[in-house]
Design goal:
- By secondary structure, the protein is an alpha+beta fold.
- The protein has 6 helices and 6 strands, in the order βααβααββαββα.
- The longest helix has 23 residues, at about 175-195.
Length: about 200
């Protein structure tokens, strides 16, 4: 069986895009928030996240993916760096992470180091390593205050605030627009009631 391959093309290549994507497979915007209802849904999710050569998943992997999602969402909901770090340590406990050196243009002498799952790791170990390292990198770079859950009503999507000023409140433009429209309606109604 060939090992799944992750193309590191999410945001800065750290894997946090994968962690956010998995965290958001639970979406209360829908009547049934579960987006990973079947192994086929997990297969589709992995494909959209850049995982290649993944054999069809089974029920055990589906449950493990849901458990990983729950752990990731708990990290995003954490209030302190200590709490987030402790949960992340639990998520990564017992996993083997290997360094990889990549040499760019030989004329430039560019060398990059990255870390990933060990060769031969099963799918769930790979998912845990990629998601855990992605969130860990985000914690290190931006801090726990940038791991967020959307402020919009009826949305609990997770995101990492990579904005310059660190004031992003919504997971995407849809939620930001819904908030702005609701605020406008509220102000308009208040203005009408004051005139009456």
């Amino acid at each position: 069986m060939s090992q799944p391959i992750l193309r590191h093309d999410h945001e800065d290549g750290s894997g946090f895009g994968f962690a956010v994507g998995l965290g958001n497979t639970w979406d209360i915007w829908f009547d049934d928030p579960e987006r990973l209802k079947t192994t086929g849904a997990l297969d589709e999710f992995l494909a959209t996240q850049g995982w290649e050569s993944v054999p069809s998943t089974d029920d055990r992997e589906l449950e493990a993916a849901r458990q990983l999602r729950s752990e990731l969402r708990s990290i995003f909901a954490s209030q302190t760096a200590h709490e987030a770090a402790a949960m992340l340590a639990t998520l990564l406990n017992g996993l083997v992470v290997e360094p990889r050196l990549t040499v760019g243009d030989p004329a430039d002498g560019d060398v990059a180091i990255s870390f990933g799952p060990r060769d031969g790791a099963d799918l769930m170990e790979q998912m845990r390593v990629v998601a855990g390292l992605g969130v860990g990198g985000a914690l290190e770079r931006w801090g726990v205050d940038r791991l967020r859950m959307c402020d919009a009503d009826r949305c609990e999507d997770v995101f990492i605030d990579t904005s310059k000023n660190g004031r992003r409140r919504y997971c995407n433009v849809r939620c930001q627009n819904r908030f702005n429209v609701a605020a406008l309606r509220r102000r308009t109604a208040e203005a009408r009631s004051e005139r009456a």
